[in-house]
Specification:
This protein is of the alpha+beta class. It has a single domain, classed as Nucleoside Triphosphate Pyrophosphohydrolase. The protein is built from four helices and nine strands, in the order E-E-H-E-E-E-E-H-E-E-E-H-H. Strands 3, 4, 5, 6, 7, 8 and 9 form a seven-stranded mixed β-sheet that branches. A two-stranded antiparallel sheet has the order 1-2. The chain is globular and about 50 Å long.
């Protein structure tokens, strides 16, 4: 049996107001703190920027098999966003990278199984070398791929159902003019 995971409950300004078991927060649509990490690389041979996406594991209790940012999760009650994002990036994808915060946004998405994500999502971005080795955790990640910026923007527009509900808003923050 695994230990119960807790999320940090927050108000509309992202002030901590308590904690709750993760599943309970999703069952009751409680606003909680989360983060989304985007990793990119610049290819040495042509200077193209590519973004690392993950496909969520097929057994996840929401959004299974959908494409999303490099990793996303919730900080533990005693963790900062940066510490949690750094930890989960290594756990899910086997990557260590310096991360920079890009901003945050609030969203709410209900799923067919009765669960709801209601989060203030902090977006972080980091770069890796183009020969970075990826080591996925198959309990979290079904697959991964590198995608050029223009290709990804086209996919989001033409096939939004292939991506998680938070992806487009997080992507917009990660790729703001002058950010990265």
């Amino acid at each position: 049996m695994t230990a119960t995971e807790y999320v940090i409950l927050v108000d509309d300004e992202d002030n901590s107001i308590g904690v709750a078991p993760k599943l309970y927060a999703h069952e009751h649509a409680l606003l909680h703190r989360a983060f989304s990490v985007f990793i990119y690389r610049i290819l040495a041979e042509n200077g193209q920027k590519q973004w690392l996406l993950q496909q969520r594991a097929l057994h996840k209790y929401h959004s299974p098999g959908l494409w999303t940012n490099t990793c996303c999760s919730h900080p533990k009650p005693d963790e900062t966003i940066l510490a949690a994002a750094t930890r989960r990036l290594h756990e899910e994808m086997g990557i260590k990278a310096s991360l920079t915060a890009c901003g945050q946004f609030k969203y709410k998405a209900a799923f067919d199984n009765g669960l709801t994500e209601h989060e203030i999502d902090h977006v972080l971005v980091g770069a890796v070398k183009d020969d970075c080795v990826i080591a996925i955790d198959p309990l979290e990640v079904a697959n991964y791929r590198w995608v050029e910026t223009e290709t990804l923007a086209k996919e989001i527009m033409e096939q939004p159902e292939q991506f998680t509900p938070w992806f487009q808003q997080a992507w917009e923050l990660a790729t703001q003019e002058g950010q990265h």
